[in-house]
Structure prediction request, 175 residues.
Amino acid sequence: MAKRKIVYYPEPVLTVKAPEVETIDGEIAELMDDMAETMYASHGIGLAAPQIAVSKRVITVDVNPDSEEITLMQLANPRILEGHGRVLYEEGCLSFPGLTVEVARQAEIHVEAVNRDGETFRFEADGLLAICVQHEIDHLDGITFVDHLNPLRRRVALRRFKHHLAAMLAQNSAA
Ligand code: ZN
Prediction:
């Protein structure tokens, strides 16, 4: 496993629709494992392949990284079959370091995906898991969390992020 570099908005790979994975071969399994390592190392609870500059429909999610049971999900071609309800949550994103925005999402979702063993399966999610899966699937469609804001709030959030990123990069290059 290897940690990969996370790309930041507005990297073009974050704004295009990623193609489906055809089979779970060694390369995809390695991608999934690298994504898990990258996600944990970055203290994220979800990561989509476009965030490490790989345009493929693969996500990793673990909303209980400190739990003793294994709660890691490594999914290819995830899609939402149906959703219900509405929930507001202050989200962050590894491609927008320093920015959080409140986003409205569906509260409960039914999802179909392919696991690391190549098996298609279905699961239901609510709470933080539902929010996180929707956030990551959005990345596969070239949608980021600021795209859920109205035009004014989106502009304010992007301006805040631009300032934060510039300060962060200046600090990193000085260190
Ligand atoms: Zn994100």
